[in-house]
Specification:
Layout: H1 8-11, H2 15-25, H3 29-46, H4 52-63, H5 66-73, H6 79-94, H7 99-109, H8 116-123, H9 128-138, H10 167-191, E1 201-215, E2 218-226, E3 244-248, E4 258-263, E5 270-271, E6 275-281, E7 294-300, H11 304-315, H12 325-328, H13 332-336, E8 348-350, E9 363-365, H14 382-393, E10 396-400, H15 407-423, E11 451-455, H16 458-470, E12 477-479, H17 487-490, H18 494-499, H19 505-527, H20 530-535, H21 543-575, H22 582-602, H23 608-613, H24 642-645, H25 654-659, H26 662-710, E13 715-719, H27 720-725, H28 727-733, E14 737-740, H29 748-752, E15 761-766, H30 778-782, H31 789-795, E16 801-802, E17 805-806, H32 811-818, E18 826-827, E19 845-849, E20 855-857, E21 860-863, H33 865-880, E22 888-892, H34 895-907, H35 912-915, E23 918-921, E24 930-936, H36 949-955, E25 959-967, H37 969-972, H38 977-989, E26 993-994, E27 997-1000, E28 1007-1010, H39 1014-1019, E29 1088-1092, E30 1098-1102, E31 1141-1145, E32 1151-1155, E33 1187-1188, E34 1192-1193, E35 1308-1309, E36 1323-1325, E37 1331-1333, H40 1334-1346, H41 1371-1407, H42 1412-1423, H43 1426-1446, ...
Parallel strand pairs: 10-15, 10-16, 11-13, 11-14, 12-13, 14-15, 17-18, 19-25, 19-26, 22-23, 22-24, 24-25, 35-37
Antiparallel strand pairs: 1-2, 1-7, 2-6, 3-4, 3-7, 4-6, 5-6, 8-9, 20-21, 27-28, 29-30, 31-32, 33-34, 36-37
Helix pairs in contact: 3-4, 3-6, 4-6, 6-7, 7-8, 8-9, 9-10, 10-11, 14-15, 19-26, 21-22, 26-28, 33-34, 41-42, 41-43, 42-43, 43-44, 43-45, 44-45
């Protein structure tokens, strides 16, 4: 391609045409890129150059990333220039334009600020990447996914086998590969929603926001996910802290996406049988989220937090000052001649820590040859020593450690040498430094930055730090990140150390303020609950709705009680039935239905109104709304203004509530609670904004505190994600030494993201022959994203130092993997101490062959049913041999196989040891080992997992001395040459591959061949052989169980004991034979004998019992004092409380059944009270519930009031409460407007000019004033539709009435006994439709106006008030009545306030009184009305006046009794003022009479 150079003008010959199109149509930059790409493609074909590579490169450049750059950097007027630049860059990129030709055009672009860097690169002859690639990843928002639905070009593959020309290009490639690894599957999964099943995402519908809270990052929301029916449990891999979520309420349309992340650890997830609740944070949409909103949710299967921090770390990298540039670029000379670490050049290296204790100090300069160490000086072998020296003499060192060769041990030794060299060795090597967490000088800033240890996983990091602490190498350790389960390491966690840091007043103050804001947000969210909204004063819910909700609550609770009672009754019935009968089976099925119903009743609903809103109805058995069908209450649904009333009809009866759909129910409820919710939400929003600001302050304070802690440490440990997350913190620390453990498992981008300009020494320890880094997308794996930095450097020519002595596996197992390493792997002599055989199996290493196919299901990775059962049965057999669960592990290649094995283990509910077994995937087990490994390979059709040599090495190198591989080896040998060589080795050379596994019994010497997993339970159920044990046990009986490996682990002997007398345990004094089982203690003799008891009765008792203390069980025949017979036994004390049922007469006079011992005065009468209350309603209590003292206190009346209000409507409140203002809509209206208030409020005055006028006279008053004109008595001159003249009055509305000739339009209401109106009679029609003769209607209106009562003037038939709109004839009277009613309304409101004040005053006076009448009067006051309050005040005055005399009434004899009787009589009735005054005079007379008698008596 390079030999075909095309002039620039040829490439852009169609550019003027393109520019004209862009100018005419206003085409944007992205569209321009697409047009130019098509033009460029045409130019290639025209010149005869058809190169797919050129086209592919053109697409990658033209569409992405230059379009993003140009769109951000060039203004619209520069579109023409953008096209020129784009063409030039495309041409240079694919090699179709000479760089010298591009230089001539560079000067044209320098005037544009955004293009200067590009032009400079072109002019200087640098690769185009050096000028532009930094923008392609620096300008991308890591938290933005606006391109989720766009067709993005695939990123370029990473270079892994040679020199890299540009660090900018390399960082750009790593960034885009990593971002696409996360975003690609998410994009694919979201596009497939509603089309086909996908495993790229998790999808949930009906997700609800149920509350708010806070976390250290800011405000979070509580999310409730409904679980699908028959769900066994939530997936373990879901809802990790930091996982990415996408919410939408419009089927995931592009502009409806809301992004969030999961917050809180796994313990904060609340899981029930029907829901899963967790916390999520919405960084960009906190203010838009509302509690109660419902969405659909997508969760990414890739762990977002691990990606986001690394991507940000790459963006923050300082490429100009990046260390190890030549090595990272894989320049051959730099890889061969790696320089010495700068910080060790002039230092003396202290190697003493490599030696045994009490050896003389060993020091060395890196500029000299390293000293020799013999085996008698140190436990470190030659290869390990060589690796340590290599790490100390190369600024970038790579140490390769095959399985079991001690990579972690070498890493610890390197750390120890560096510690001794940089900080000096501790005085006492056995103890190390003082405990960093107990004795620590916080102000000791340290001489140099600490060593940073990076690991990919938390588990690997904890292992390294635990070794450092347990061996005493170093105690000044800080762990960054909180995901650790080790309590010792937790003491070194940076969060824990910050808590103990002195002088952090600012941080504590911020936390205190955040706690206060959290409490306020929590309380505000609680106020938004349905229960609290119903009780809020700002909520405006009509009475009929409150009554309806009360009924729904009763139905809801009753349904739950009935459900629970039915389940209890069924369980009691089950106990009386045979377990396997058909009837018992039916009852169990019914119980399951009832339990499901109970779950449905309570699912997601904290209040019955929530269920009603969602359309879930709960009807109790007694629920019957028929009594409300005729309810004529008409309550308006809303009172918040016209915006909320529109489209919401009145709800008149309960049936109207039932007919509403879900949307309408929410509309009504939102209408009623709008004001309450608005004020609460505004408070929440403002509090959230303040909390977010406090959260930022807290993070800043924590960074300052962290820097204080880190500056005093010597070793800082963190995962690669943690290092990227705390990049700013580590950069301030300026670390010089970075050690990466298991470096072959770490993505190169993770290492690049933490490299700072201060790094001077990088040590990579791992094994690129084992597992590669985990990649989410297969496409990105094919583009070399899974190649670690360690592997890339080795493949590019850097020679690692290799460890060659393994100490884990036996020689036989080691031979399986050592063939894949270029150097010989030596087995250390210490492995000979491993057991040479596995108990119960003939060979410690065996490959079990089969021909069973795998199973593939949609959305699930493959699994092999045969291998899963074989692995579980074999593991159980090994456990029976006496091995512990932590000595065995089952390894598998796929999650589908792991889940299937876990399901089979769960089926063994009785086996607790089997459930403790570790079952894990190979990819999660690198770096770990076990005594015995059971490996299943699953595949019988596709290659998949097996084609990778890395996984082969890991899978076959985890066992110490026992391994069993289960697979279809005829297929496996075709997968890869590596597997074929292993299988050939074990089948031909070792003869350990067969379809038959041979088991052996040590007790009997028998062998058992297993050809199928089902044969384990049939042939060796107890782990032995087919024979019986027959070992004599301690009791003397032979063991009759099937052969089992442990001769001391016999089941309890179940033979009959048959011992007697002294032979029993404990010994007996009788000669009866023990009938218990042999394994049971004999105990006391249970033989039955006849004996005569002290009472004279004969009874069968146990041989060991004493007759004198045995209780006689014969029924007692004694008679009680009440003449009923005693119901107890002879040996018991006689009944003290007779339980016979008798009829008793209560103090109230009613009769009731009760137990004999209960006194009548203590019984509460259950007969209905039915007394007539003051309101003339009947008391609804039972007789015993009403206080029957001197004054009878009844329950407050709950009947409907039905008193007539001033507006003429009936009061629908509770009888015992004060009548509230009428809440019906006012129907008053005129020709200008209508009253928008409720009936209980005074109407607003219409200030328009009165429009009542005719040709004879006109009103001059305002519309609301009484008219000053007279009624016009002239006949209306208008014609009706029938052609006859109207029979109404001039200037009034024409009545629809005509009886002239054959016309019979309308019927009049006969008020004057007139069958047919005469010709002279005039007719009046009201708005209600009723028609009257004017003479009758005039008389009716006049009579109403003359009554001494404030009222509306209404229709004589339907009583509907006449409004100014109805007719002008009665407008004067109507306006006068409106004025009078408005005055009455105002006075009622004033009287209401005075009435409430008077009631409060009376109640306070009664509360301080201890008289019996005070309780009665309190009830009267609480139920009183306007006309009652004066009389009650008089009675209270009388009671207080008589108070001083009450204690002396007793002294006055008959006169005192009369005075007391009169006082009590007046207090229990609603007495008149005269009656109260009369009683007062009478009491005074009786008191004086009593005093006189008292004086005479003296």
């Amino acid at each position: 391609m390079g030999n075909h150079k095309i002039p620039f003008n040829t490439i852009c010959k169609d550019l003027p045409k393109i520019k004209a199109i862009m100018r005419a149509k206003g085409v944007g930059i992205d569209k321009a890129c697409q047009i130019i790409m098509e033009m460029y493609h045409f130019a290639i074909k025209q010149d005869g150059i058809e190169t797919q590579n050129a086209v592919a490169a053109l697409k990658a450049v033209a569409v992405h990333p230059f379009s993003n750059f140009l769109q951000a950097k060039i203004i619209n007027e520069s579109s023409e220039m953008a096209a020129d630049v784009l063409c030039a860059l495309c041409a240079v990129r694919v090699g179709l334009l000479d760089i010298t030709d591009a230089k001539r055009h560079a000067e044209r672009f320098k005037a544009h600020e955004g293009l200067q860097k590009l032009c400079k690169a072109l002019a200087e002859g640098k690769p185009v990447r050096e000028g532009v690639d930094a923008y392609t990843f620096l300008d991308i928002d890591v938290d933005s996914f606006d391109d989720i639905y766009e067709d993005m070009p695939e990123p370029e593959a990473a270079e892994v086998d040679g020199k890299i020309t540009s660090l900018q290009w390399h960082f750009n490639t790593q960034f885009h590969l990593l971002r696409e690894d996360f975003l690609g599957p998410l994009r694919s999964g979201m596009r497939s929603l509603g089309k086909h099943a996908t495993t790229d995402i998790w999808f949930n519908q009906g997700v609800t926001i149920t509350g708010m809270g806070t976390c250290h990052l800011g405000v979070v929301f509580r999310i409730c996910i409904p679980k699908p029916p028959n769900s066994r449990g939530f997936q373990r891999d879901r809802l990790k802290t930091g996982s990415l979520l996408c919410f939408s309420d419009r089927q995931f349309e592009k502009d409806s996406l809301i992004w969030a992340t999961v917050q809180g650890n796994r313990n904060s997830i609340e899981e029930t049988s029907s829901t899963v609740t967790f916390m999520a944070r919405f960084p960009k949409h906190t203010a838009d989220m509302e509690v109660g909103s419902m969405y659909d949710m997508v969760e990414s299967t890739a762990f977002f937090e691990a990606y986001s921090h690394v991507l940000r770390g790459i963006q923050k990298s300082q490429l100009d000052d990046l260390p190890f540039r030549r090595i990272l670029l894989a320049i051959p000379d730099a890889l061969v001649n790696i320089q010495l670490p700068e910080l060790l050049k002039d230092r003396v290296i202290d190697l003493t820590s490599l030696l045994y204790p009490r050896q003389p100090a060993l020091e060395w300069s890196v500029t000299e040859d390293p000293p020799k160490i013999t085996p008698d000086m140190s436990s470190i072998d030659a290869a390990q020593y060589e690796s340590v020296i290599n790490a100390l003499t190369h600024e970038v060192a790579v140490i390769q450690g095959p399985p079991g060769t001690g990579k972690t041990y070498v890493g610890l030794k390197i750390i120890e040498v560096l510690r001794d060299t940089l900080w000096g060795a501790p005085a006492d090597r056995d103890k190390g430094d003082d405990d960093f967490t107990d004795n620590f000088d916080w102000d000791d800033g340290g001489e140099r930055p600490p060593i940073v240890i990076m690991c990919y996983t938390n588990h690997a990091l904890d292992s390294v730090l635990s070794e450092l602490l347990s061996t005493g190498i170093e105690n000044r350790i800080v762990r960054i990140g909180g995901s650790t389960k080790d309590e010792t390491i937790m003491k070194h966690n940076i969060i824990e150390l910050i808590h103990r840091l002195p002088n952090t007043h600012e941080l504590r103050d911020v936390k205190r303020q955040m706690r206060a804001h959290t409490a306020l947000i929590s309380q505000s969210c609680s106020d938004l609950s349905i229960e609290n909204l119903l009780e809020s004063e700002a909520t405006e819910i009509p009475d009929i709705a409150l009554k309806y909700f009360k009924r729904k609550s009763e139905q809801y609770n009753k349904a739950l009680e009935e459900n629970k009672a039915a389940v209890t009754a069924n369980e009691e019935a089950l106990q009386k039935l045979p377990a396997f009968s058909q009837e018992a089976s039916d009852i169990r099925k019914e119980n399951r239905k009832l339990e499901v119903n109970a779950v449905r009743l309570t699912r997601c609903y904290g209040h019955p109104v929530e269920a009603w809103l969602d359309g879930n109805e709960f009807h109790g058995a007694a629920d019957d709304d028929r009594g409300h069908e005729d309810d004529d209450e008409k309550i308006h649904a809303g009172r918040l203004g016209n915006d909320y009333k529109e489209g919401l009809p009145e709800l008149k009866i309960f049936a109207d509530f039932e007919k509403l759909n879900v949307e309408e129910r929410y509309a009504y409820f939102d209408n009623w609670t709008f004001r309450a919710r608005s004020s609460i939400k505004e408070l929440v929003r403002s509090t959230c904004r303040e909390f977010e600001a406090l959260s930022i302050r807290k993070q800043e304070e924590e960074i300052r505190a962290s820097q204080r802690v880190l500056s005093t440490s010597r070793i800082v440990g963190a995962t690669t994600t943690g290092c990227a997350k705390y990049h700013k913190m580590l950069e301030a620390l300026k670390p010089e030494i970075i050690i990466v453990e298991e470096a072959a498992e770490v993505l190169e981008s993770h290492v690049l993201s933490v490299l700072s300009p201060y790094a001077k020494h990088l040590i990579l320890i791992g094994d690129h022959k084992q597992l590669q880094p985990k990649v989410n997308s297969l496409e990105m794996q094919q583009k070399n994203l899974s190649v670690s930095l360690m592997e890339r450097l080795v493949r590019s020519g850097l020679k690692p130092s290799m460890l060659r002595t393994q100490r884990r596996m036996t020689e036989e197992i080691c031979l399986l993997t050592s063939r894949f390493y270029p150097e010989e792997i030596i087995t250390h002599p210490s492995t000979k101490k491993h057991p040479t055989e596995v108990r119960g199996i003939s060979k410690p290493l065996f490959f079990i062959d089969h021909d069973k196919n795998e199973t593939k299901e949609s959305g699930v990775s493959p699994y092999n049913e045969y291998e899963a059962h074989y692995a579980v049965e074999l593991a159980w057999y090994l456990l029976l041999q006496g091995y512990k669960a932590n000595q065995i592990v089952i390894l598998l290649p796929y999650k589908g196989q792991r889940n299937r094995v876990a399901d089979i283990i769960r089926e063994h509910e009785h086996n607790t040891h089997l459930r403790e077994l570790k079952v894990t995937c190979v990819d999660n087990y690198q770096g770990e080992e076990s005594d015995i490994v059971i490996l299943t390979l699953v595949r019988s059709q596709g290659r998949g997992f097996l084609k990778k040599e890395n996984r082969l090495i890991v899978a076959l190198s985890r066992a110490r001395w026992g391994m069993y591989v289960i697979a279809n080896f005829d297929f496996i040998r075709t997968v890869s040459p590596e597997w074929k060589s292993v299988i050939d080795h074990v089948s031909k050379d070792r003869n350990i591959l067969n379809r038959t596994l041979t088991l052996k019994c040590d007790a009997h010497g028998n062998t058992t061949n297993i050809n199928d997993p089902r044969e384990f339970s049939r042939l060796v159920p107890a782990g032995g052989c087919h024979e019986y044990c027959h070992v004599r046990m301690d009791c003397g009986h032979p063991c009759k169980e099937r052969c089992h490996p442990k001769t001391t682990d016999h089941s309890p002997c179940r033979e009959v004991c048959n011992k007697s007398g002294e032979d029993c345990l404990p010994p007996r004094s009788c000669t009866h034979t023990c009938k218990k089982r042999c394994y049971e203690d004999c105990g006391l003799c249970e033989e039955k004998v006849n004996a005569t008891l002290p009472c004279g009765h004969d009874q069968a008792i146990r041989c060991s019992d004493d007759p004198a203390v045995v209780q006689c069980r014969t029924p007692c025949i004694k008679m009680l004092s009440c003449r009923h017979r005693c119901r107890k036994q002879c040996g018991e004390s006689c009944t003290e409380r007779c339980r016979e049922r008798v009829e008793k007469t209560l103090p109230c006079g009613h009769k009731q059944d009760a137990e004999c011992h209960v006194e009548a005065s203590r019984l509460r009468c259950k007969t209905p009270c039915d007394a007539v209350l003051l309101c003339d309603h009947r008391c609804a209590n039972r007789c015993g519930e009403c206080d029957k003292g001197v004054f009878t206190l009844h329950k407050q009346c709950i009947e409907e009031c039905k008193r007539t209000l001033v507006c003429g409507h009936a009061c629908n409140s509770i009888c015992s409460k004060m009548c509230p203002p009428c809440r019906k809509s006012c129907i008053m209206r005129c020709n200008h407007s209508r009253c928008g208030k409720t009936c209980g409020d005074a109407c607003a005055k219409c200030t328009a000019q009165c429009d009542w006028a005719c040709e004879h006279q006109k009103c001059t008053k305002l519309c609301w004033e009484p008219c000053d004109r007279k009624k016009c008595e002239e006949r209306c001159s208008k014609k009706l539709p029938c052609g006859h003249q109207c029979k109404g009055f001039c200037g009034d509305r024409c009545p629809q009435y005509c009886h002239e000739g054959d016309c019979r339009v309308g019927e009049h209401e006969d008020l004057l006994m007139i069958d047919e109106p005469e010709e002279k009679d005039r007719m009046v029609q009201l708005a209600c439709g009723h028609i009257f003769v004017s003479e009758a209607m005039d008389g009716h209106v006049k009579a109403k106006m003359s009554e001494d009562k404030i009222q509306w003037v209404g229709c004589p038939v339907c009583r509907r008030p006449i409004t100014p709109f109805d007719t002008g004839r009665y407008r004067r009277e109507v306006n006068e009545s409106i004025i009078n009613v408005n005055i009455a309304r105002k006075r009622i409101h004033e009287a209401d306030a005075a009435f409430v004040k008077e009631k409060d005053s009376l109640m306070r006076r009664l509360l301080v009184s201890t008289d019996l009448e005070a309780d009665y009067l309190q009830q009267r006051v609480s139920q009183c009305r306007y006309d009652d309050v004066k009389a009650l005040r008089r009675q209270v005055d009388l009671m207080e006046w008589a108070q001083p005399f009450r204690t002396r009434f007793v002294k006055y004899g008959v006169a005192g009794d009369k005075a007391r009787a009169e006082l009590e009589a007046i207090l229990v009735v609603m007495a008149t003022e005269e009656a109260v005054a009369q009683v007062g005079l009478s009491i005074r007379r009786h008191v004086m009479e009593g005093r006189l008698h008292a004086l005479l008596a003296e």
